[in-house]
Amino acid sequence: MAAGGTGGNGGKTYSFKVVLLGEGCVGKTSLVLRYCENKFNDKHITTLQASFLTKKLNITGKRVNLAIWDTAGQERFHALGPIYYRDSNGAILVYDITDEDSFQKVKNWVKELRKMLGNEICLCIVGNKIDLDKDRHVSVEEAESYAESVGAKHYHTSAKISKGIEELFLDLCKRMMDTAQAEERLKGNGASQSASGRRGVQIVDDEPQATPAGGCCSSG
Amino acid sequence: MSQRTERRRGIHVDQSDLLCKKGCGYYGNAAWQGLCSKCWREEYQRVRQKQIQDDWALAEKLQREEEAAYASSQGAQTQSHSQSTPPQTGHASLGPFSKFEEKKTNEKTRKVTTVKKFFSPSSRTPPKKETQEAKTPSPSVSRHASFETEQVSKDFVDFLKNLQKPGREIHKQCRAFIVNMSSKKELGADELSECVQDFYQNMSDRLMSHFKGSSDSVEQVMDQVEKYIMTRLYKSVFCPEITDDEKKDLATQDRIRALHWVTIQMLCVSMDEEIPEVSDNVLKAITNIIEMDSKRVPRDKLACITRCSKHIFSAIRITKKEPASADDFLPSLIYIVLKANPPRIQSNIQYITRFCNPSRLMTGEDGYYFTNLCCAVAFIEKLDAQSLNLSAEEFERYMSGQASPRISSSEADWPHAGPTPAVTATNPVLTQLNHNLELLSGLSSRQESLMAAARSLQADLQAWPERVQREVHSILEKYPLEVMSCTASAIDANNMDNDNLPSPLTPQVFAG
C-alpha cells in the first residue's frame, strides 16, 4: 500500500481519494466489494473490512492508486461528512432506485459537496440495484437530468448482477486524471509537485474551524 | 501544565484558582505568578521595560553627579586624569546593569522550564550524559534529551550510515532544524506545524531528486526523519501551553465520563460481546487506543489507531460473519472511545494533524482510521438525544444522572435481548458476569449431586463386603460342612481277577 505522493515526473503515479456517500442500505459496501473483490454477499470474502479499500489501475499507461473511503450512512452521522470528504478527488453518491428517499439524500450531499469543495471534486451519482427495476421509484430521466444540472455523471449499477461498476470507476478515474492534469497545467509544471503537497497541509490547518462550521450548518 | 498534574493526582483545586489572575478567562500558571502565558508575557515585558528605564535613569543620575563632581574639582588639575574616568564608569554601568537584567531573565525562564520538567511525565528518566547531544550548540536542546531521545538519535545515525554522504547531509539538516525549532518556543501551534510541514516538504523534495523519483525509498527516509525530529521535539510541541488543547482534553474527558450510560444498543453497534472472541478483540482495541498517548512519533500514534481499528473489524467480522462496512465501523469506534476514554485524546489528534507527514495522513489506510477517530470524537462532542434515538427528556435525565437507561429503554430498543433484558441492556460486562454466575451455580449444583452420588456409592461399597460375608455365613449355616467317614483301601483291593493272574516274573540270574 505505497500511497506515495503524486511525485516523480516521468512514470507518474496518481493517488486519488474517493469517498462513498449515501444512505445506509443503498449498497455502498456491496458496490466496492464487487469492484475490488468481485464478490457479492459471499461467504468467501477474504477482506476483514470493506470500509477502506484500495485498487491499483493502469489507465493509458499511467498508474493510478485508488483509495476508496466508505462513510457511515446513518443519518446521525451526517454532520461528520466534511471530515471524511475533505481532500478527496472524487465522490460516489449512491442511491437505491427503489427508494425515493435515498435519492433525496444524494441531492443533499451534492449541495453540501459543491458548497464545501467547489468544482474541484468529480461527482458520480449512482443508481444502484437495477436488478430490481420492476420496483423502481426514481425515474431514469429525473435522475439523469438532475445529475446533468449539477455537473455530475449518472450511472446505473447493480452489485448483485455485477453491472456498470467497472465502467463507473474507470470513468471516474479518467475524469479525476483530467482534473489533476488541468490543475497541474494551471500551476505550471515545476510548482505542481510542492503545490499538491502543500494543499493537504493547508487544509489540515483549516480543520478546527471547518469541522464545527460544517456540523452546525447541516444539523441546524 | 501544572494544573493538569494537580488534577490528575486528585488534589482539589477550585476552578477560579486556576484562572489567570488578570481575569482574562484563560488558565494561569503558578510558575508565571498565577498569570496565563499571554498576560505573563505582557506583564513581564512591562516590568522589564520599567527596569530598563529605571536603570537608564539611575545611570543618568550617576553621570550627572559625576559630572557635577568633575566640574567642581576642575580647579584641581592634577586629579583630572584620574577623575576623568568616572563619567565613563557611569556609562559603563549600563553594561553590567543590562547584563544583570539578562541574567535575571535567563534565570526566570530556566525556572519555568525546570518547573515544566518537574511535572512532565518523562522527568523520571533524568537527562543522561550524552555523547552526541554534547556537540549540539544549543543547551536547551540537549537539556531535554532523555533515554528515549538518545536511543532514537542512535537509531537515526545507524540508519543514515547506509546512505553515506547524503545521510550525513540529512543528519546535519535535521539537527539544524531541531536547534532552529528550539529557538521558536514562542510561536503558536499553527506556526510550529507550518515549520515542521515545510521541513518535511523540503526534505522530501530533495530526497525525491536524490533518489530520482523512487517514492518508496523517499518514504523510508522520511519515516526515519519524522521519527527522529518528532521524538526530539515532542516535549516542546505536544500540547503546547499556548493552545487550549489541554482544556479541550479535559472537556472531552469529562464529556465521556458524563456519557457513561450510553449502551452498545443505543449506538447500534454490531458487536456481540457475549462471544468471548469478540470481547477479547474489544479489550485489545481499548488497550491500543489508550496506548496511543504513550507514543511520541505521530506515525507510531497512527499505528496504534490502526491496530485498534483492526481489532474492531475482527470483532465485527466475528459477530456479523461478513466484512465490516463504515456503517458498522464508526459506531463501534465511537463505542470503543467511550469505553476507553483515551487520555489526552484531543491533544493527540491535534499533534498528529499538525506534525504527521501529510502523505501518510491524507490518502493511506492509517489516514482513513485517523479520520474515523476524528469523526468519533466529533460525534461524542456533539452527541445529543436525537443521535441516540432518545427523547430529549430521557437524554436529560440520563445526563443528569437522575435515571439510568437499564430498564426503561431495554425492552423497546432491543427485542432479542434474551431472558434477562434488563441486565443485558445495561452493560455487556455485567451480562457476561451474570451469565458466568449462572453457569457457576449450575456447575456447583451438579457437583453437589455428584458428591451425593459418590457418597452413596462409598456407602454401598462399604456395605457390600458385609453383605457378602453375611450371605456366606448364612449359607454356611444352612449347609454345615459334613465330613463323611470312608475306609481307605489298596488300589487293587477290589480286584476279583487277582487269582487268575500268572505269578510274577522272577529275575533270572546268570553266573559270570
UniProtKB/TrEMBL annotation, chain A:
GO terms for molecular function: GTP binding; GTPase activity. It is found in: Cleavage furrow; Endoplasmic reticulum membrane. GO terms for cellular component: cleavage furrow; endoplasmic reticulum membrane. The keyword Flavoprotein does not apply. Its main location: other. Keywords: GTP-binding, Lipoprotein, Membrane, Nucleotide-binding, Prenylation, Protein transport, Transport. One of its GO terms (biological process) is protein transport. Pfam families: Ras. Residues 184-220 are annotated as: Disordered. It is a lipid-anchor. Belongs to the small GTPase superfamily. Rab family. PANTHER family: PTHR47978. This is Ras-related protein Rab-21. It comes from Betta splendens. The gene is rab21.
UniProtKB/TrEMBL annotation, chain B:
GO terms for cellular component: cytosol; endocytic vesicle. Keywords: Metal-binding, Zinc, Zinc-finger. Residues 246-389 form the VPS9 domain. It comes from the Eukaryota. Residues 134-143 have a biased composition (Polar residues). InterPro entries: DUF5601 (IPR041545), VPS9 (IPR003123), Vps9-like (IPR045046), VPS9_dom_sf (IPR037191), Znf_A20 (IPR002653). Residues 14-48 form the A20-type domain. Residues 99-110 have a biased composition (Basic and acidic residues). One of its GO terms (biological process) is vesicle-mediated transport. Residues 64-147 are annotated as: Disordered. Residues 77-89 have a biased composition (Low complexity). One of its GO terms (molecular function) is small GTPase binding. PANTHER family: RAB GDP/GTP EXCHANGE FACTOR, RAB5 GDP_GTP EXCHANGE FACTOR. This is Rab5 GDP/GTP exchange factor.
